[in-house]
Amino acid sequence: MTYPVPWINIPVRTALAIWYQWTTRTELPELSKVSVLMRQRNKVENTLRAMQHAGPGTLQVISDFDMTLSRFAHHGKRVPTTHNILDHRLLIDEDCACNMRKLLKIYYPIEIDPSLTSEQKIPLMVEWWTKVHHLLIQQKIQRDMLAQAVQESGVILREGYEVFFDRLAELQVPLLIFSAGVGDILEEVVRQSQVFHPNVHVISNCMDFDANGVLRGFKGPLIHTFNKREGALLLAAPLPELRERPNVLLLGDSLGDLAMADGVARPRNLLTVGFLNDQVEERTESYVEAFDIVLVKDETMEVPNAVLKFITSGKDAK
User: Fold this and answer.
1) 74-92, pLDDT tens digit by residue?
2) 37, β-bridge pairs
3) For residue 112, which of 225, 14, 230 has the smallest C-alpha distance?
4) Which residues are known catalytic residues?
5) Pair type for strands 215-218 and 207-209
6) pTM for the complete prediction?
7) How far is CA 151 from the centre of its chain?
8) What CA–CA distance (Å, rounded) separates 101 from 37?
9) Quick check: helix, strand or coil at residue 265?
10) I need a labelling partner for 200 at 20 to 30 A (CA). Which of 21, 86, 182, 190 fits?
11) Which segments of 48-199 are extended strands (E)?
């Protein structure tokens, strides 16, 4: 049985939760937007109040990057991911670009296929990114060309990103950006957006350059969409900036992103926000079941900014 909600058909259980959300008041009017879905509104509001009471000194923010902090699309055109930005003639040739696009067409549908389990997807994700990294290494990419490639890429962060980054920096709240993309490109995007503040930490697939600045490999273990739990435990947990911060605001666009908080020692309150960018009808139910707040085709940071402002407006806030 399905229940009609403006532009989608979803199971009646989810529809009733959303109907409750629309017909009751909230302390955050942004949560009443049509693009916002919540399965347990009371849980969300109770978590928000608990985090606000604890104060920003107990908060850390963990976020994915591609299609989470960066936009999914702009004016009907897909915004490039960090891997897409590498598809630039300054960095790779047409043959490499063609092979990378072929791999994308094969593996991306697998990544977002709701009928497959994470366990089924993991070996295929490893296969995908291992092949991509091998292609990139063959191109002997020069480090000093990355900034120009980013500048000419057309990548755009979500509207309102400055408020989000600046508020976190002002309150000295750590922002851990956890990405299966390319860390060097990610950092350059943030840097050129003028929000690479001291509180920003990046865990991603980082390039390894030789003494002449030529790509020779990638550092550390491979990070892909569905092994972020292992990355969180290995790489994020030891960061001293994150200790004694048991309250977590997590942002992601994939179910695999929910594992990014697994490295948090003794978590107290966790609030998850999921951006549902495409395949809305197929994935709404699974996203509403998994994330506390789901943002459907929302290219802005309006809701995360409202949530952050609420959480940090109480005890110890500036």
Assistant:
1) 999 999 999 999 988 899 9
2) 294
3) 225
4) 64, 66
5) antiparallel
6) 0.86
7) 21
8) 33
9) coil
10) 86
11) 59-63, 73-74, 77-78, 175-182
